[in-house]
Each structure stands twice: as structure tokens, then as C-alpha cells.
Amino acid sequence: MRVPGLPPVGGDVVASAVDLLPGGGFNVMAAAARAGAPVVYVGGHGAGRFGDMVRAALAAEGIVAALPASADGDTGVCVVLVDDSGERTFVTGSGIETEVDPAALAAVPVTSADLVYVSGYSLLVEAKGRAVLDRLDVVDGAGVLVDPGPLAGQVDGPVWDRLLARTTMLSASAPEARTLSGADDLRTAARVLKRRLAEPGVVVVRDGAAGCLLTRDGHTEHIPGFPVVAVDTTGAGDAHCGVFAAELLRGADLHTAAVRANAAAALAVTRRGPATAPGRAEVDVLLASTP
């Protein structure tokens, strides 16, 4: 919903536009697919109208759904309020995606050529979080990229300890990095978080228009963002994660992957909606036109 501002408690505002679109984890997968990566979705999806919408969107992007639809419920919804500054506020109503069959999850093959993306949302429900962590414990050789998500502070510390110990790459927004590290300074936060990761231990801290910090091998590098006029910040971090992952799978070095992820996130915020990541050709054009 496009709104002039958030309503006061007990109040109301009139939205200038309302859209019903697939989003959430789909944003990341769509970004990776548009950047050329083969993508497999290993999460839940319901049998109702929202699940139907999700499956159609996955198919349109060439994304494979590894698990069958669940007849026990429908996919959840997230109300996104986007104000006149382009900033977004979420209210999430969870659905069947909060559940997963551990046996079905264990049966999905993962090879050393893969990169496993894990959202912090998967940890919010204890049973699902435990199933995901158990599956990661037996993933052999694949990289694990974790995005904590805005509800990172609602997950218990020992759960984060277990996940981060299996994480090879962490991509967090600035507020998430501060929450997980306990440090206000972003460079300090990145160094603190890197010490909690598995080798090679790469931390990306996404800092909006400023770009991102890339921490690895005892060194932190600031990679500038791209100047654009933002109209909707929904899914910007998702676009960054998806493109970063896809570029690494293509064989790009970390610096190049982060630069292209910054460019993709910049283009994403110039468009209204959640899954607004560009394709590789669009990123190429922006890179070629920016000094």
C-alpha cells in the first residue's frame, strides 16, 4: 500500500495504490534468477490462492519448487506500507511457509557447487528453525549465505550461534548487524560478526544509499552505492542478496559481486513493488554509465 505516512494509533490513512504481489523470499530468488543463477526453492507453499500466486511467480522466473504444496493451509501475507519517502514498514501474517517436513528437507540434494541461502525468518518458529539447522549440519562443502532479516532480534542467541557457526557468508542490513553484534559502529560490528562465522567468513553490511561494507581476511572495504532517486525501498536488501549470490555462482570475486549487488539494489529502489531486481544487462548499463 502506498500511503502518505503511517497512521497514528487508532487512526487511518487512505492508500493511493494497493497491489497484491508475491514478495518475501521470492524477492531474493527472483533477483538471483534474473542475474542468471539456477534457483531451487526449498520452502513451504500453500494450496490456496496465495500459494497459487507464488507458484505462478516461481514458474515465470524459472525457479523450481522442490517441495509439494501443502494442503494444510495457504501461504502467508505481509502488509507493506510504503510512505512518500519510499521507506517501507512491514506487518507480517505468517502462513504455511513457517512449517517444513524435516524428512522432505533432508531429501533435497545439495552439492559443493551450490550456495544455500537462509533467511532469518526461518528461525522464528522453533520447529522449522531446528529442521533447517539440522539440515545445514549435514550440508557438505556448499557455501551458506545468511540474511538475518528485520526480526533478527526475536531469535534466541544460542540459535544464532548455531547458525552463524555454519555460515560462510553473512549479508545483513546495518540495523541487523548492530543487533547481532551489539556494536554501534558498522566496521566494528562486521568484525565481531566475522569471528562468529565458519571459514572463509565473509560479512556484507548493507547500508542503504551508502552502499555496503565487505569484510574478509581481516580487512573491511567500503563499496559505494549508486546515486538514484528512491521511490520504494521494499526488497532492496533482497535484490542485493540475490545478485550477490548469483554473481558468486558465476565465478565473480567478492568485490565484483558486491559492486553488482549495490547496482542491482539501486535499480530496485527506483521501481515500485517487492521483486524489482533488474537483470544482468540492466546492471551492466548502470555500471557503464557511472564513473
TrEMBL record:
Protein name listed in UniProt: PfkB family carbohydrate kinase
One Pfam family hit: PfkB
Gene Ontology terms, MF aspect: kinase activity
Annotated organism of origin: Pseudonocardia alaniniphila
Sequence ranges assigned to domain Carbohydrate kinase PfkB in this UniProt record: 22-276
Keywords, in A-Z order: Kinase, Transferase
Top-level division of the source organism's lineage: Bacteria
